[in-house]
Specification:
The protein is an alpha+beta fold. The protein contains 7 helices and 5 strands, in the order H-H-E-E-H-H-E-H-E-H-E-H. The chain has a 5-stranded mixed β-sheet with strand order 1-2-5-3-4. The termini are far apart.
């Protein structure tokens, strides 16, 4: 009798052990499957992240190449003005800055673009329309700190603003640059690039800057 009881106990033990083993094996398989799914998902997320970074870099490179191409074009077309120190080009955080000393575009105390200055603006407009058609453009006027005496302007604020607007209207009316791309500001004497202590330095401060901004900035603004 004892042998029969022992036999059934052993059978029960083995049955329980087998069930436990099967359950553990099944759970192990489930965990391995979950682990494989997680690894796959992580792999997909990493690929998506790498692609997103590559797309961002590609977009930035494209924007930079647009401005760099514009800079190269302007270096060629404005070679005379640059060589005579009447214009300069600088790549900045804001974008490509084209700087003209005021005497290139305006007579002293005036806000009408003079005939001799029109070719320079036409060269700029060609690049704006052809090479950077999606970029916004800021036109900024600056003066030295000499007070207004004879020209009729109230202060240098008015003169610098009027000159920036004159360039804007010329680009729109004569060069067919889209008006929605343009803005104009006058800063008077308050953002000088050199001390107003010599004739040469005052000439540097009397200037008009045309800033071509990266197209990505425009998209961020629109959003």
């Amino acid at each position: 009798m004892r042998k029969i009881i022992s036999f059934f106990v052993l059978c029960g033990f083995f049955l329980l052990s087998g069930c436990t083993y099967i359950q553990k094996s099944r759970r192990t398989d489930e965990l391995e499957a979950e682990n494989a799914n997680l690894k796959y998902r992580i792999s997909q997320l990493q690929k998506e992240k790498v692609k997103a970074v590559e797309n961002a870099v590609e977009g930035k490179d494209r924007e930079l190449s647009e401005l760099e191409r514009a800079k190269l074009e302007l270096e060629g077309s404005l070679k005379k003005e640059i060589g005579e120190y009447k214009a300069r080009l600088n790549m900045t955080e804001r974008g490509l800055v084209i700087t003209f000393v005021s005497e290139v575009l305006f007579d002293s105390g005036k806000d009408k673009v003079k005939q001799d200055g029109e070719p320079a603006l036409q060269k700029v407009s060609e690049v704006l329309n052809r090479d950077v058609p999606s970029s916004e453009v800021a036109i900024e006027g600056y003066t030295d700190n000499d007070p207004i005496k004879h020209s009729g302007w109230k202060t240098n604020w008015e003169l610098s603003s009027a000159r920036a607007l004159a360039v804007l209207h010329y680009l729109v009316d004569e060069c067919k640059v889209k008006p929605q791309r343009l803005s104009a500001n006058g800063y008077g004497e308050f953002r000088s690039v050199a001390p107003n202590d010599s004739v040469q330095n005052k000439q540097k401060n009397r200037r008009v800057e045309i800033v071509i901004m990266p197209s990505k900035i425009n998209k961020v603004k629109a959003n």
